[in-house]
Amino acid sequence: MKTMRRILISFSLTSLLSLAVFAQSDGSQQNKTGRAGTFAIVGARVVTVSGAVIENGTVVIQNGKITAVGAGASVPSGAERIDGKGLSVYPGMIDSSTSMGLSEIGQGANATVDIAEIAGNNSNAKAITAVNPHSSHINVTRVNGITTVMSAPIGGLITGQGTVINLNGSTQADMAVESTVALVINFPRVAGGGGFGGGFGGFGGGPQVDFNELVRRRDTAVEELKKTFAAALNHAKAVEAYAKDKSLPMVPTNLAYEAMIPYVRGEKPIVFTAERERDIKAVAKFVADMKIKGIVVGGQEAWKATDELKRNNIPVIFTNIYSLPVRDDDPYDSLFDVPSKLQAAGVKFAISTGDVGAEARDLPYHAGLAGSHGLSPEEALKSVTLYPAQILGVSDRLGSIEVGKMANVVVSDGDILDPRTNIKHVFINGRLIPLTSRHTELFDSFKDRK
Predict the structure, then answer these.
(1) Per-residue pLDDT for 439 more than 50?
(2) Quick check: 315 pLDDT over 70?
(3) What is the pLDDT of residue 414?
(4) What tens digit of pLDDT does each residue of 284-308 get?
(5) By C-alpha distance, which of 36, 177, 23, 34 is closest to 100?
(6) Do the Cβ atoms of 167 and 33 come closer than 8 Å?
(7) Has residue 199 got a pLDDT over 70?
(8) Residues near 286 by Cβ (< 8 Å), separated by ≥ 6?
(9) Model confidence at 399, in pLDDT bands (50, 70, 90)?
(10) Considering only Cβ atoms within 10 Å of each terminal Cβ, which end of the chain, N or C, has fewer?
(11) 44 forms bridges with which residues in the sheet?
């Protein structure tokens, strides 16, 4: 009887847990894609980012675009008017280094995780094909004013191709701003590991390896990477030669090499994950040697390599505001002022959470911390709006409040980088998004309980 009772109790608890999980995983929030229309935000403080602040301005949204901005902008007949008195209008924020939509439950639910492939060269893996449009992380993130992210895989040496997506849409095609925006490479580093997820290795264990040997291993891995780049270039030349002269031997299909072609030719950027000074300098040398477009993601010690970064026009997507200091005797806030050092040195930069997805909602607070440690408020705002758009090559569509740009617009009751600020309206691609998520539902469910 006792055994049967334990079984019944266990079954009941399991059933209740399953119901609770189901109640929060039914897609009800993720399918709320908002409504289109013509909207006019009237009498608001308009922070254009790319130009002067308009203290009492109007922003008109029509057919998914920003069609008018200014103090005297006319409101089309039939437009839905939003009273902007006491409110501020900002461009939607952009988190430029995430794996949004590729991982739902990182531990314990492997079927919800699709962030890495097992091969060393996964250049033909496209993040856009794996993004889950109904991820619960999407709603939680966008209600805090983040409207766009770069989502990228993390596994292997050459991890695959990142995508720039809007945080709204029923399909990947609906969400895509730039389906394949950059190739991501976990650049070989002296200590091994690396990548979007950190990768600093375990604690203790194993024999100590001489530092010079670690450098040799890194350099060997870099040479192998150069050989892969050369092979991709040679493959492209052979394919093109065969297309012109069919008497030549037909070139076997190689999806990995073919995916690399626009990147190894310098037509599209390559994102290199690197943290320490020596590795960032190695990235700069690699970019110069291979004549490619490079972007550094991570960048803990990027401020020590500003000469090399600037010389090779390599921007930094800084992901370490919330990270612990690099060394035990570093001040607790040593990473907070890295963006200001990059800005002072003339290095292009953006601030990102570097998060898989669940914590990307904290992006404004990352920038806010940098804004209180040497970065001006204007630069802090640009670091999560205009600058990431420029680095990712989408500033013609995103990053500022300008006529003709995609209507990714956020309306708030204060400084968008201040944790005390409330988001009042969010538009993504011109659609007015409901400000609901799993978090807001839980808050509404429990706020009145005593």
Answers:
(1) yes
(2) yes
(3) 96
(4) 999 999 999 999 999 999 999 999 9
(5) 177
(6) no
(7) no
(8) 187, 222, 225, 226, 272, 294
(9) very high
(10) C
(11) 57
Neighbour count for residue 292 (Cβ, 10 Å): 20
Q: Give the closest residue to 275 by CA, choosing from 297, 296, 299, 295.
A: 299
For the chain, give every domain's residue range: 26-92+399-450, 93-395
Inter-CA distances, 274 with 42, 250, 369, Å: 45, 39, 22
What average pLDDT does the chain have?
90
- Find, among 355, 271, 342, 330, the residue nearest to 302 by Cα: 342
- For the record, the structure tokens of 392 come out as 């990712």
Tokens standing for 114? 């699709």
Helix (H, G, I), strand (E, B) or coil at 351: strand
Structure tokens of 307? 């000469």
| Maximum Cα interatomic distance, the chain, rounded to a whole number of Å | 83
In the block, residue with structure tokens 């966008």: 142
Residue 441 CA to residue 420 CA, distance in Å, equals 20
pLDDT (tens digit per residue) in 21-57:
444 444 455 557 899 999 999 999 999 999 999 999 9
Class of domain 93-395: alpha beta
401: how many CB neighbours lie within 10 A of its CB? 25
Structure tokens at 408: 């990714």
